[in-house]
Amino acid sequence: MPIWSSLPFFLLLSVVSTLASSPSFENTAVVRTVELGGAVVHVTTTYAIKALEDGSNVYTIAFSPDERKKTSWLEAKIKGQQNALPIEERLFDAERDYHFVDITLPKALSANKTTNLVVETILTHATHPWPETAGQKDDQALKYTTDLFVLSPYSTTVQRTKLRTLAPRIISFTEPKGVEDFATEGSASKSGATIVYGPFHNLPPSATQKFIKTYQQPMTIHYFHDQPVLEILELKRAVEISHWGANVNTEDEITMHNAGPALKGHFSRLDHQTQQFYKKPAPHVLPAINLHLPAGIRDTYFYDLIGNVSTSRLRVAPSLPKNKQGSQYSLLELRPRYPLLGGWNYTFTLGWNAPAADSISYDKSTGRYIVEVPIMTLFPGAVINDAEVKVILPEGATDVEFSPPFPALENRISTHITYLDTSGRPALTFEYKDLTLKHAQNIYVSYKVSFAAHLKKPFAVATAFFSVFGFALIARRVNLTIHPKKKAL
Amino acid sequence: MRSLFALLLLPFAFAAKDPQQQLVDLSTAGNGVIKLDATTFDLLTSPKRTWSAAIQLTALDKRRRCTPCMEFDPSWNMVAKSWTSVPKEQRNTHFFATLDFDDAPTVFQKLGLSSAPIVYVYPPAEGPRQPANGKTAPSKYDFSTGFEPGPLAEHISKHTPIPVPYKDPIDWARWASMAVGGLGLLFVLRFISPILTNRWTWAVGTVVTSLIMTSGYMFTRIRNSPYSGGGGNWIAAGYQNQFGQEVQVVAFIYGLLAFSFLMLIMIVPYQSSPYRQRMQVYLWTGVIMIIYSILVSLFRVKNRGYPFKLFL
Amino acid sequence: MTTAYPLPSNLSPATVANTASLLRIVALALISGAAIASRLFAVINFESIIHEFDPWFNYRATRVLASQGFYEFWNWFDPTAWYPLGRVVGGTVYPGLMATSGVIYNFLHALNLPVDIRNVCVLLAPGFSALTAWATYMFTKEMKDESAGLLAAAFIGIVPGYISRSVAGSYDNEAIAIFLLMFTFYCWIKALKQGSALFGTIAAIFYFYMVAAWGGYVFITNMIPLHALVLILMGRFSSRLYVGYSSWYAIGTLASMQVPFVGFQPVKTSEHMGALAVFGLLQIVAFGQLVRSHVSSAQFQKLLYASVVATGILGTAVFGLLTYKGWIAPWTGRFYSLWDTGYAKKYIPIIASVSEHQPTAWPSFFMDLQFLIFLFPAGVILCFRELRDEHIFVIIYAVMASYFAGVMVRLMLTLTPVVCVASAVALSTLLDTYIDPKEPDTGDDTKSESEATVVSASGTNGSSFSATPTPTPSKKIKKAAAAAAAPLPTSGIISDLVAATGGPTRRGEPIKTKGIFGMDSRLIVIMHTLAMLSFFVFHCTWVTSNAYSSPSVVLASTNQDGSQHIIDDFREAYYWLRQNTPEDAVVMSWWDYGYQIAGMADRPTLVDNNTWNNTHIATVGKAMSSTEENAYPILRKHDVDYVLVIFGGLIGYSGDDINKFLWMVRIAQGVWPDEIQEPNYFTPQGEYRIDDMASQTMKNSLMYKMSYYRFAELFGGNQAMDRVRQQQVPKVGPTLDYLDEAFTSENWIVRIYQVKKEDLLGRDLKSANAFGQGKKRKRTKPVPRRRAIV
Q1: A345 neighbourhood in chain C, CB within 8 Å
Q2: Residue C89 has pLDDT above 90, yes or no
Q3: Using an 8 Å Cβ cutoff, are A116 and A79 in contact?
Q4: Burial of C298 from C-beta contacts in 10 A (0-12 / 13-18 / 19+)
Q5: Whether residue C483 has pLDDT greater than 70
Q6: Most exposed of A28, A296, C288, C522 (fewest Cβ within 10 Å)?
Q7: pTM, 2 dp
Q8: ipTM for this model
Q9: Among C485, C504, C523, where does a domain finish?
């Protein structure tokens, strides 16, 4: 299970294990492919490894601190296999300026056996707009910086780094220097939308102070990007479960920010309308965004601080109950009140109701309800800086258990009081950072609700009403006049 | 006669005295108002004037058919007259003058004026009273407040050394008539008191008042809209607008409808003969139906979008 | 004893009474439902949103109250309004409305009903309209009987004249004020009828609530004393009047002085002097009565009249003196402008400029009241027929209100209740007469008559109509007795009239037995009445849904396919301000939009709809109507960051700033007559144009430039057309040197400009701009270079 949500968490959990004194592996080939995006950069590194001694099953990879900081997701697999390998980060000690991560292979390799290891990482906030401001009609260019060599505690026969951009328009990239003793011919080449560094041959173990001092160097690529760079500064999700209404209500409070180059000068509606008329919108303007909401949702609402936003459109897919699979989505074309230009913000609230059957299942044997709660709505190509997911269970839910797909920064249980509650409802809160498309998974919560708890609310309401009637009944019959009333003259 | 005198005076004036003195003489001659022609106009508005001047450019000749000029002239003279009453030293630093189109058409052309009456106030260009902001260009009086002397005096007072001591003349006739009327009323009261104490006089009074009010009388009063649009159309176009005649028609319609209801309520039940009663019931119901549908169609004229209609 | 149609004779009076009261309750419930439902068009067509302009302030204040508590609200100083002056809100509002919704909000939350404060505000008006219907029912019941009461309740429930100011979302003082008005009047009538200090006190309490809720409380302050005065003059003084009035006035006045915004006005301003005078007069008269009981009545009359007249004269003299000395403030502008209708236009143009202060043309009367407007005189006449004390109240109310409604459109609101009451009285009398099954017959004795009446009563309440047994059969019997006692009359319309007008109050005059012969006359009248009522319902529904249910914040237009298209430019622009400008950016706009900007954009504004500072507003008017060079210093002095204008030229939204421009000019002219002159904004022919023929002053004015900046380019070469003015805009649009276009909404309705800071090199911005553009041009094409250099 890939566990990689944040550094502090891991400093707590990580177990100190000593670095193998003599290297037990060597890399026959290391290929790193970087898919350059806006807010999210997708890095795939393939290690072709060869065991040097028997029974070695812990392979170690290394990251520079900067890379480590930006990484919000890491997953290691054997090439061609589905299930991810268990990974574990070592404690970071200050005199090394690189991080080690141990990957436990499914079965130990005997000497001279080879296998291919695929390590996927996702970097967030790895690019920044350059120039930092752009006029309404200008293009949008980003800069991305990475290290030339992939660090590894093992010696590497051949290593190559590919950087791929979406648009085949690359403004500039850095030429590596002082690498003659690895590179035979030209160490960097550009073809279309791709830049290749390397191949570099016969690298010594690169995860050493000496190597980094002498050879490691930052490579910066400056390229045009045609999609707006979208950041969700904050996502507050509240999921409220009601057994009476057989309904699950989900509500997201979202703060959007266009992290592209800040608008230079001012917004001119005329230019905007001209661009739209000629069907070539500026790359950093975000007029609308398409969201995938669950199938079978009802009465979706979309409002901000001053009321309904009348401009968005929704196509609902029919409901599908939990057990059977299906990949339909309700498509919401979410159009903010105004087009989102570089550096502009927009906050709004998006909510919907879904039939409980789609996400809740009841386990007869244990008498527990099990509900699955998606952590986030998928914002294509966007990063969610701070996320808070709050699951509000029905009133009177007892022995609550939950299992998040990956541990949260912080989670707590509180009480939430809403419509006609007498004793509030248990509410679970999870907090996350830097979520990306890979994190769009489900939290599983299971709880028990006694029959009496179900009846609590109607009983309370009934009592209230009856007391009112009773009072009226009495008040009607009590006569408080001091002396019998005279007839009006 | 007056102007003639002024004209006679002119040559000496130019010969002898300094311009201000001439103007003083002229104004005294024209008891407060200088009757200008082209030359005296230049004299009065000379670029190095130490005095201020208020000039009425008008066309009082019958042939010009300038009714506003006619209306405005008296109040102008009144204000000018009131200025003569101020002490000499202030009086001689501000002049009222009238320039008739027929005396000096050239001036009108020079100022590029096509309409009359117009009042220019020239602040002094030199001397102690020269305006602080140095604007010596004449300022035009805005007639939006009408031709009354009061506002005019107020406006001019802004440019005179001391305010123009203008007061509206007391309308003795009005007061007298009111007094007489009051007394007469008191006298008559003794005889008509039975009528006054009868509730039905009050009833009629009340109902008539509210009828008139609810048919938009105050609107015509405040907007002083015409009695009728002329050319026989007496219905003003537009939902927020109406003519004087509509008040009468609508009030009458309301009144008639109310009356027929009252007949149904108060008279019909007291009929002793079933036949007469039935007739009256049908009559008044019919009246209500017809008049009501007339009313509705009238409303449709005013409010085009109104979807409903009755029999017609 | 013949009846037109058979009646169930075996009903016990108790059954009748119970059925009747049950029917009454059901009817009232249904009426309330109808009243609320008919006000929800706006919510259903659009959304739950606050309407118009003033409600946005009330809403904002309520939010403060709900979030920070009453104490904070009470001394809330709002620095963002009237920048840089600020506004002491606690002391300058009628807090009744906010307090009401605050209480409701807290109550609901105490029940764990987490209702959004906005929804409370939106639905407050409909809720109170149901209460108004009930209050009107109670009031009319005092006038005639329950049946009339129910009719009146139904009328006021759905009559457009009241709906116009109480649809869901129009969260304004009037929303609750009309209920308070009617209920105070009801309590007053009760107090007067029973001479009960209790009801007088209740009236006083509700009067206090009214004072706290609406400036229109002055209407009550003068209505009740006027009523009392008339009663005295009619020689109807009684201990009941004395008790009722004294308790109301004493408690009510003291209570009303607790509202900070009112303070000592009740004893210092002319609007309140009438009440005080009548109070004094009452004391004298009461004293007179005391004396009378000791002195023989012969010389007493003289004594009384003499003293009354003397004190009257004395009082007026003192009052005059006080006013002259300035201890009593003379009539304030708004009220004075009701009497001297020319006053406002001349001296307070701001008040005159408000659309709801315009006089009312007859179509609006018919639109708002439909057939009630001509039933109303009939009802008044009926009040005259049976001239009890409370009827006099209705009569005075009728006269006063119809005058006020004629003078100001918004005062239609005060007319509506009395119209409903009077016409309900008329209509229910009609129905009583024609549903009553009793066939007239001659010569009968009191007893059978009385039975007849009771039977008739029982008969009527069966019908779907609101006719129910009269509360005091005994009275009716008396009337009937009187009727029966009458000798056989001579026929003839005159005697009819006499008989009819004589009414039941007179005794011993020839009155004939009344009643209707046969079914057909009954049926035709009833059918006819039913038809009119249903027409009324259709009318109300249509008017409400079409005229009164659009929240001027959101505009609706229909596409070609008839589907509704929502134009949401205002909120788009306001929200942009809120999200993408610094918290303390000062926004300048015409005062109409002040509250909306404060409410939705949450930014400081120069002026807003609380038009208390003429000079400040005139400053804005001046800035808008003078040239850029002259406006710039003004803008900088008030450190304005953004200027917001409303421009409807693209989609034909007629309520835009160019159409309001002349008011800005006028108001500015009132303060700076020699800098701004209205005539300069017209063409020499005196037309108001915006095309090539427009006057130079017009073209150079800031407002014109901001409205039409780059507008012509939108039409790319073609002739640009202003759809509101129906005029062609000059091909070469205006240029701006001191402002930058910051934001323009989708349909160009809202345009926001940023005020440039001073040029860094200390040049004036005009030349700086010219220089900059010269630079640019140099690169593109050589020709203008010379111009740039020279």
Answers
A1: 579-580
A2: no
A3: yes
A4: exposed
A5: no
A6: A28
A7: 0.83
A8: 0.81
A9: C504
